[in-house]
Description:
alpha/beta; 3 domains; eight-stranded mixed beta sheet; globular
Amino acid sequence: MASEYIRLRGIGVSPGIALGSVRLAERVVFTSRKEIIPPEEIDKEIDRLRRSFQETKRDIAEIKNQVRDKLGKEHAFIFEAHLLILEDNSLRNEIENLIRKEQVRAEWAISRIHDHYMKVFETLEDEYFRQRRFDLSDVLSKVYRHLQPYAREAKEDDTEKILVAHELLPSEAAIKLGKGNILGVALDMGGQTSHTAILARSLNIPAVVGLRDITKKVKDGDVIIVDGTDGEVIINPPLAIRKEFISKKKKYDDYLRELRKTSKLASETLDGVRFFPLANIELPEEVSLALSLGAEGIGLFRSEFIYLRRTTIPSEEDHYQVYSQIAKKAFPFPVYIRTIDIGGEKNIPQLNIEREPNPALGLRAIRFSLKNRSIFRTQLRAVLKASIQKNVRLLIPMVTEMEEIEEVKWLLNEVKTELTREGVPFDPNLPLGVMIEVPAAATLVDEMIKEVDYVSIGTNDLIQYYLAVDRSNELVAYLYKPLHPSLLRLLKWIITSVQEAEKEVTVCGEMAADPLCALVLLGFGLRHFSMNPIFIPRIKKVLRSVEREYIKEMVEEALKLRTAQEIEEFLLERILVKYPQAFLMREITEGNRL
Length: 594
């Protein structure tokens, strides 16, 4: 019946609304058939595999050039990583060894290796780390396809469509989304940090991922709505719903145009108080997007991604190439490089980290780095070498005690001495900062700030540890309250302590991207706000719409209240009366979804 339609909920990873007809993407299906070959054919089969690797390398190099010409170098960078995977002989050797051992066709050997690595990545609890499996899958899919000489991808038309797929490999995302005829994207798989999500955001293509089985519910030509703002997809909507979403799309597009105008405006409150919007990024290709949205620096670069683009432990040169690329792209703005935050739930296959019963409280971040000093020294050397650009900062995650700062400084000085002896140039005054993420560091910040140049407050972890709440646990998630009066008192103490020492303090957790929380932080005296790039225009608009002195007085009054709900209601009422245009009610109710 015409009135029958399906609504699906997923993860909105690129805001906006699109309505159009479906184009289902094809996918490589790895064989499960184990075809045995005679011993005398093994060498011939391995030659066949090696030819496929070479053809794949030429293919990826060509794609890299096409993407660079169409979308820019920032999106072509991913294919450098794919070429590194191909050039890393350990992957090909694994497949060759399986061919020899099992006496099988290359197709089955590739399928087996692919399945093994996909299962390894699936065991990782951290969503960002799980998403990196697609790089390896992308490369193996191309090698597999080159083994099939008669397999050809179906020719696509150039009409505007909504792209629906089980998942999009990085190269598929770059090619398909870069053609300019994709209105929206809906995927069974994926998350906020997938390459598809990052590319869709930079190209302003609405996208919803994590829909589980949308590919089984649609066919080519079906009409669907993709609402990347709310994370909703509607299949074959009736006319009334289509009209509703067309109206919603117009309002959103008008709102977004107005919001983006703020990227070129001064970062100042109504009473002339300067603030600094910064960007949290995972990939080098996000720098250009961040700057275009008004970022005045990279407030947090998560360096773990370097480990996820390789099947082996990255070298000093691998680290250096990434850091120097980001520093050059962002210059003259600052770049804060966080040393690797891995261990615990953020496991990486090539590091063979032992599973722990309570990973959130285990061997992670700086604890891991100080236990694995050769890995840490490699990263420190690379950061120092990249600091020649004079805009690089070093940021140490999850510091708990003064001794950790002392150890880091000792190692840093030792590495500086090595580089000086080798004649390698670097910034001898490289600024060093620590992340305040655990209560022990928060209450000791007045002492810690004497030993470092700045601090960055990671509110996501700090709230979790301070309130003893796992926000991913639906049974207690209601207790995760950024406006909890006790937490606000703690944040005020941190910010005040650092500023009294005349040092810099940044908030890089999700509180910085929430309009109401950002105003509270402004009232405490915060000037540096670091967030996902897509939220910068909204926060900049909010902060530009108020007077800091009034917000300061209002927040002081709010701190006298006893519950998070009382604080929220008080703040909303006072802000809307004084500054009705500061933000839309929808922004308040939907938080970071806009």
